[in-house]
Structure formats: C-alpha cells, structure tokens
Amino acid sequence: MSRPRKWRSVCSLPPNSKFGPLGSPLEEEQPVIMTVDEYETIRLIDHEGMTQQECSEQMEVARTTVQGMYDSARKKLAASLVDGKPLLIEGGEYHLHDHSGQGLGRCGRGCRWRQRMNNPEGEDQI
C-alpha cells in the first residue's frame, strides 16, 4: 500500500491563471497545465528569491519534493514559451494557508496575502 500524498501548503491562489500567445484564441491550442503547487515553487524560488530549502519549509514538504515540482514547472513554462502554447494554472494537491490569527499560519517572508495587506492600493510590490 502506497503512502498518501502530503498536501502542499500554498499562500494564495495566483491572481491570473491563464496565459497565452497574443492574437490567438486560447482554445485553439492544446494548453500546458501547471498545478498551483508548481506555480508556488516558481513564485517562491524565482520571484521571492528563496532557496529550495526555504521554499520546502514554507510549503511544508521535503526539499526533494520542491526540487521535483520546480523542475516540472520550469519545463512547462519552457514548453509554453517555446511552442507558443497557452499556459493554465489549475489543480494540484495543496491547501491554502490560514491567514487568521496571530501566527498567520506557516506563511513566511514570501506571503502574498501579507504583501497585499501592507499595500492597500492593491498593487503588487516588485
């Protein structure tokens, strides 16, 4: 009997979940599907500048799991860009952080929810 999969902890859902080449309908091409947890690894490692170890602690999974998700996400991004295919972010085995209370769940420095609360105009901080 196999071990049950561990849910990956994600700060928040992506603000945009559909991307594609300009000028062509997204429905015409077979899309590349990236899971929400794969997106979270790209966000934390590439956008927030975390190491794989820091990312694994925030997502509450092993570093090797993060490494596998990150590699898969990068291949999907490359396929979408190089082949001109739409990219959809959906599905995966994750749960959202609970941002209530003092501890704010396991969210760390890359918390999108906390960034939005500190920036009431709703503009992303880059």
UniProtKB/TrEMBL annotation:
Coiled coil: none annotated. Belongs to the UPF0251 family. This is UPF0251 protein SpiBuddy_0654. It comes from Sphaerochaeta globosa (strain ATCC BAA-1886 / DSM 22777 / Buddy). It comes from the Bacteria.
